[in-house]
Specification:
The structure holds two protein chains of two kinds. Helices cover 0% and strands 55% of the residues of chain A. By secondary structure, chain A is an all-beta fold. In chain A, 34% of the residues are buried. In chain B, the strands form two sheets. In chain B, strands 2, 4, 5, 6, 9, 10 and 11 form a seven-stranded mixed β-sheet that branches. Chain B has a four-stranded antiparallel β-sheet with strand order 1-3-8-7, with no helix packed on it. The chains are: A mainly beta, B mainly beta. Chains A and B meet through strand 4 and strand 5 of A and strand 5 and strand 10 of B.
């Protein structure tokens, strides 16, 4: 079946640098995408979402880019901080109740 | 802020026991979900509910049941716990809207061990 996946399982980034986390999805019918952050011992925390009629959306220090042509989603974190260390998941939705989650990228911020 | 509260952070039960995991949300959300999260397998949907007393099977419902008697509360039941149900269980809720999707908001999980 179709699934959401992340390009890299781990990402190490220097504090203060920008981070880019990538996600490839395979279901062209998906019309809603979400990024979650999961810290150790906690549940996934909503970061930002984007609908398929947009190609970019910005939040506080985060930007999500959606390229429907190549079915690619990315999360950019500006000026990465130690508190950004976590596992990041992308999820897709096809206009029903279900979300399909990727396996996650573990981001480690180096001081 | 949305608050999804799971009654236990850690739970240890024995094989064959009936186990109840409770979840409460305070944002009047129509939709509620139960997932399990396992290393290498990601989040998998067990059951969801889009209204009181309504439930739908997710991707892995076998060995589980659910109850939604009140809008704010969604319970996951392991009818006869087995060791392969040792996992992190996550509850989520979302608002129901007619024309657009809304994000799911998660609790902090219950780490369940079946001995």
């Amino acid at each position: 079946g179709e699934s959401v996946g992340l390009h890299l399982p781990t990402l190490s980034v220097q504090e203060g640098d920008n981070s880019i986390i990538n996600c490839a999805y395979s279901n062209s019918a998906s019309d809603y995408f979400i990024w979650y952050k999961q810290e150790s011992g906690k549940g996934p925390q909503f970061i930002i979402d984007i609908r398929s009629n947009m190609d970019k959306r910005q939040g506080q220090r985060v930007t999500v880019l959606l390229n429907k042509t190549v079915k690619h989603l990315s999360l950019q974190i500006a000026a990465t901080q130690p508190g950004d260390s976590a596992v990041y998941f992308c999820a897709e939705n096809m206009n029903d109740y279900k979300l399909s989650f990727g396996a996650g990228t573990t981001v480690t911020v180096r001081a | 802020d949305v608050k999804v509260t799971q009654s236990s952070r850690y739970l240890v039960k024995r094989t064959g026991e009936k186990v109840f995991l409770e979840c409460v949300q305070d944002m009047d959300h129509e939709n509620m979900f139960w997932y399990r999260q396992d290393p290498g397998l990601g989040l998998r949907l067990i059951y969801f509910s889009y209204d009181v007393k309504m439930k739908e099977k997710g991707d892995i419902p076998e060995g589980y049941s659910v109850s939604r008697e009140k809008k704010e509360r969604f319970s996951l039941i392991l009818e006869s716990a087995s060791t392969n149900q040792t996992s992190m269980y996550l509850c989520a809720s979302s608002l129901e809207t007619l024309y657009s999707n809304q994000p799911q908001h998660f609790g902090d999980g219950t780490r369940l061990s079946i001995l």
